[in-house]
UniProtKB/TrEMBL annotation:
GO molecular function: metal ion binding; pectate lyase activity
Catalytic activity: Eliminative cleavage of (1->4)-alpha-D-galacturonan to give oligosaccharides with 4-deoxy-alpha-D-galact-4-enuronosyl groups at their non-reducing ends
Enzyme's top EC category: lyase
Protein name: Pectate lyase
Alphabetical list of InterPro entries matching this protein: AmbAllergen, Pec_lyase, Pectin_lyas_fold, Pectin_lyase_fold/virulence, PEL
Source species: Ceratodon purpureus (Fire moss)
């Protein structure tokens, strides 16, 4: 009897448990996880952008996708060197969760397909889910001063203090002044011997310029364009641009800030995925409004004479961007104006600075072999927490405020900034900021200051670390290369403590460099500003001879 009662109790318990599970099964989602989270299938398409091959975790704070690091590194468009933190391009716009709706159709294209017209870009064209007339009147067109007021993706920085108002510290009592010495002459004969040796070591094609020799020694470079991404040096090393995406050909030089169709430059740079952008032929593109460039893009002007004029190029909240071989000049202030920033989003941008190219809150950016001149504000600025930047092989001419690193005295987040300025030629008509630095660490390497400067070449404030390495400074009327600038910001104990040093530079025509802080011989201290090994300064004229776009090969 006792055994029968025990058996009955067990049967009743089992039945009760079965009933409880049945109730749970009908009240919980089918894909309920025991950790309490909901699967992707429980949310709408608007809440999730689907990325093939990547696990979709829902970030309840931002409504964005978090990529599993292991699976992320295995995707075909991200190299192993890229971390999820640095490469998660789609999570850079927390207020724009629908930006990547075209990703699935995008990845259906072959990686080596040439997109040059509307027919070949049919898949891209179909990603515009709503017509322009609908989009213009929709909530997708947003004034950054209202709903995006707290979203740095779509807001502009405060204008930098006018360079004409800058105040310089009196450095006449400086302990360290670097100037010409007995072995500081520019020996062209010695340079020729070195160049011949370097050329022989690289099979006879070498120019002495490591970046150029990386790709120009390949006579079939047009068929291997993406190999350029392996050539970057300095703090921008590892920038892949659009290497892992298809090639897109610009066939149409027209531009509209919002409605530029397939074949235009604006259409290419505002796509969500990686693209390697080239040009069908010579063209001048007059920008109607600020040009927004998204992550994982390469603008490759090789093989064509390409000029970008009329408005500022902006790289903001982006990663892995390469700009190579184009002329950027006559940039004007524009805005407020509507600007396309993705396949599905248009925003109203307030007045731009009128820079040639402005990098904001972005990392892994490489600007190489460009010509920059005649902008309203700066030719090339990097601000608002940007990092891992290389500026190389460019020709700068005819401008006042040439290059700025660091936003303002009130933005100490630029302390993390690392930038390399290498193999550039600073030509005629330049006044100051070659470059001008705030807060971060800067390696200025093997540049040719061939035509002097009107105020100063290298300046800085807010305790930047500056390592000048193997440059050639040919002074004009103004002899001092450097200026320690007082812009009413923190001085960190005074300009005398800022670590500025010269090593292996050549000073011509009585040029001199006013150093401060630690001497260059303290290599361990300057390690955080060291980004690549310089070549002897006597090679600089030869290494920078092809600065700017190369129009003949």
């Amino acid at each position: 009897m006792i055994a029968a009662i025990s058996m009955l109790r067990c049967l009743l318990t089992v039945a009760l448990l079965i009933q409880c599970f049945a109730i749970l099964a009908t009240s919980l989602p089918e894909d309920y996880h025991y950790d309490g989270s909901l699967s992707q299938d429980e949310f709408t398409v608007d809440q999730f952008s689907r990325f093939p091959g990547i696990r979709s975790d829902y970030d309840t704070q931002g409504g964005s996708l978090l990529a599993d690091v292991d699976e992320f590194s295995d995707t075909e468009w991200v190299t192993e060197s890229d971390s999820a933190r640095e490469s998660n391009a789609w999570d850079l716009y927390p207020g724009a969760t629908g930006d990547n709706a075209d990703w699935e159709s995008f990845t259906m294209q072959e990686g080596n397909t040439l997109f040059s017209g509307e027919s070949e870009l049919s898949t891209f064209a179909s990603t515009e889910s709503v017509g322009m007339e609908t989009l213009i009147d929709s909530s997708a067109v947003t004034n950054p001063l209202s709903s995006f007021a707290d979203d740095t993706a779509f807001t502009q920085p405060a204008h930098d203090r006018d360079a004409d108002d800058e105040v310089f510290f009196d450095t006449s009592g400086a302990d360290m002044v670097y100037k010409a010495s007995d072995d500081g002459e520019l020996s062209l004969a010695a340079a020729d011997v070195m160049l011949e040796s370097l050329a022989a070591a690289s099979g006879g094609c070498g120019t002495g310029n490591p970046i150029d020799d990386c790709w120009r020694c390949d006579r079939n470079w047009r068929s291997h364009r993406k190999s350029l991404a392996t050539c970057v040096t300095g703090f921008g090393r590892g920038t892949v641009g659009g290497k892992n995406g298809p090639i897109y050909v610009v066939t149409n030089s027209s531009d509209d800030g919002v409605d530029s169709g397939p074949g235009t430059l604006r259409y290419g740079v505002t796509r969500s995925g990686p693209l390697w952008i080239i040009f069908k032929g010579d063209m001048t593109i007059r920008l109607a409004a600020e040009l927004w460039v998204n992550s994982f893009k390469t603008i490759d002007g090789r093989g064509a004479d390409v000029h970008i004029v009329g408005a500022q190029i902006t790289i903001q909240n982006a990663t892995n961007v390469i700009v190579h071989g184009i002329s950027i000049h006559d940039s004007e202030v524009t805005g407020p104006s509507s600007v396309r920033v993705s396949p599905t989003k248009v925003v109203v941008r307030v007045e731009s600075d009128g820079d040639g190219l402005h990098i904001l809150n972005s990392q892994k950016v490489w600007v190489d072999h460009c010509y920059l001149a005649n902008a309203t504000d700066g030719l090339l600025d990097a601000t608002r927490g940007s990092n891992f930047i290389t500026v190389s092989n460019n020709l700068f001419e005819n401008h006042n405020k040439v290059m700025l690193f660091g936003s303002s005295p009130d933005f100490p987040q630029d302390r993390k900034m690392r930038a390399t300025v290498i193999y550039n030629r600073f030509g005629v008509g330049l006044i100051q900021r070659l470059p001008r630095c705030r807060y971060g660490a800067f390696h200025i390497v093997n540049n040719h200051y061939s035509e002097g400067w009107d105020k100063y070449a290298i300046g800085g404030s807010e305790d930047p670390m500056i390592l000048s390495h193997g440059n050639v400074f040919n002074a004009g009327a103004k002899k001092e290369v450097t200026k320690h600038i007082d812009d009413a910001g923190p001085t960190f104990g005074g300009w005398q403590n800022w670590d500025w040093a010269s090593s292996g530079d050549i000073f011509l025509n009585d040029a001199f460099f006013t150093g401060s802080g630690a001497n260059a011989t303290k290599s361990k201290l300057y390690a955080k500003a060291f980004s690549t090994t310089p070549r002897p300064a006597i090679l600089v004229p030869a290494m920078t001879k092809s600065a700017g776009p190369i129009l003949s090969y």
